[in-house]
Structures
1.
Amino acid sequence: VKWRGKNGFQYYDPSMNSMFHKKLSLENELRRAIEKRQIVLYYQPKIHLDGHCVIGLEALARWHHPELGLVSPLEFIPLAEETGLIHALGEMLLEEACVQMRQWQDAGLNNFSLAINISPQLVEEDAFVSRILTPIRHHQLSEDLFEIEITENLLMRDVESSISKLKELGSHGIKIALDDFGTCYSSLAYLRRFPIHSVKIDKSFVSDISSTSENASIISAIAGIANGFKLDLIAEGVETIPQMHTLQSLGCTKMQGFLFSKPLPAKEMTQVLHNPSLL
Ligand code: C2E
Ligand code: CA
Ligand code: CA
Ligand code: CA
């Protein structure tokens, strides 16, 4: 098949057509999955090396697809962001997180915070602040139990309005973490202006710290920056004991990774919270 493009004849590429249809059907499936609540949160603990206690959890989305099985957020979050479905999805997941937090509070499990990943699109919404606060208050949860993780690419978008919204959340006790820190070159200039409480060292720096000294230098520089800006510091993607020791020697004592625990379904996470020695 051919059609007349701007510059004359172009060949129609059937593989593009099938890609388009695949995406369209995935979009429709995602919409239905949100309605049917097939997307749920798993929880990964954040550990403090002093006593190996759980200081917080990160909520990570998982799609239980009836045919495909467990679909990674790396597949559907970008699709949700492109299609605008991220608003409905984000709202549903925050509600789920609040319901879960309420249950944990009622069970006396109350000495940890919960971090939620937030797409830049959500921050750009006018009603962002109230969309975050409303479900938290509805479930009578204290705002300071919550942290939101944002990525650096947010910082390059609607700067002034993002700053004021994040400040407002901060004034209510919600902590702001900068995720994947160091992967974006603009980081430093923005650190001064954004009301951020902590930075997360990206797992790409952690994965080969024991083998390359360059990554160790980067981490040590990030630790210095966090210290200088009085920010909390946490490393993600810690998989081995040598990585843990190197991070500790570089001044990072809070971490998250498969070494301690994979992200767990709520039920299993509840058992761990009741009995942290399971970790
Ligand atoms: P992220 O926020 O940087 O999350 C860290 C990712 O590293 C998670 O992948 C986690 O399962 C994985 N991870 C944890 N420990 C280790 C480890 O020791 N080694 C390795 N190799 N990986 C580890 P996951 O769950 O597949 O999520 C991928 C990304 O999807 C997240 O990256 C985040 O950007 C996004 N995402 C997940 N859930 C949500 C959500 O509810 N909303 C939004 N907007 N984004 C989400
Ligand atoms: Ca994160
Ligand atoms: Ca990250
Ligand atoms: Ca990431």
2.
Amino acid sequence: MAAPAQNLRINGDRLWDSLMDMAKIGPGVAGGNNRQTLTDEDAEGRALFQKWCEAAGCEMGLDQMGNMFARREGTDPDALPVYVGSHLDTQPTGGKYDGVLGVLGGLEIIRTLNDLGIKTKHPIVVTNFTNEEGTRFAPAMLSSGVFAGMHTQDWAYAREDAEGKRFGDELERIGWKGAEEVGARKMHAFFELHIEQGPILEAEGKDIGVVTHGQGLSWTQVTVTGKDAHTGSTPMPMRRNAGLGMARILEQVEAIALSHAPHAVGAAGHIDVYPNSRNVIPGKVVFTVDFRSPELSVIEDMEARLKTEGRRIADEMGLEIAFEKVGGFDPVAFDEGCVGAIRNAAERLGYSHMNIISGAGHDACWINRVAPTAMVMCPCVDGLSHNEAEEISKDWASAGTDVLFHAVVETAEI
Ligand code: HGY
Ligand code: MN
Ligand code: MN
Ligand code: MN
């Protein structure tokens, strides 16, 4: 496959302007974004993305999970398209680049090919996957998961947010439910550009992460039940404090993850305390333990020890405990051919690069099950993400998108 000429570059100013324009939609309270899935802000961001894609001459597609597809024709319309994309939805206290860089980086490829008057053999399709973050409607990577056959559409439609609103109803309400069957599209390959969301690339002084693997993840919902009681008049020995039980279990989550240092991680980001009243001892706590590791055996060990330690603590404190596996996926090895295209592009362009394992989950982790897939990463400042202070440099955005451009165009063949 002919590689693009070494001097071909995307338009970094135009990319940055688009990132800043998208960031104006669903602003956070501290300089980041709150553009949660299936909100009016999400709908506004989708409309802006669609307007840009149509202006770039793309034909738009939309499936029954609201996944968006912007297609640029190739010289061989029968050739399977090369897909490139990520997600436009954000965390409630999200940054401006998580997911968005991958979608708008894909659009920048189209815009650059238009500037250069280049037609690829394979069509190219820029993709926005619905609800990658999974905050409002758990689990994360929901729609790419349906696309890859990991969840049924009915199960996804029935997911409810904290107010009891259903995913399927909200998708209908914002007007972004398409007609296409989810997953019917066949891909020649899929590429995703994403910020690292960790400190490695910046610390190593590398512009590009060649993502060889995605670590596996496990979400276990834990319900600890004690007894609501008065915080003032209930003697300490009589208390069955579910909140204290959770605290002791979370200490064990930390210890379990650290016992598999340096790669394993563990924490609980979602915690619901009932009745959550200042002067009532919590009678019930529901929290989700997030364990991750590049090794499946380590994840399985952490899951087992969570149960052992959780049951021990519950018995000691006269509490009840229940565990439910509510999501996750095994470690992912990306397609060597596509990873090679990413690495060749970084070398051809002279960008410093290193192999890296993705700490975060991405749509690519599910799509890798149905198409040859690879990811390219750029650094982020202090490795910070899922925080409104998330920041990248314009040069990092351009370098990552240059590599994405070269890998996609080489795979789509000119
Ligand atoms: O959970 C994740 O790793 C992703 O950010 N949704
Ligand atoms: Mn993301
Ligand atoms: Mn994210
Ligand atoms: Mn081909």
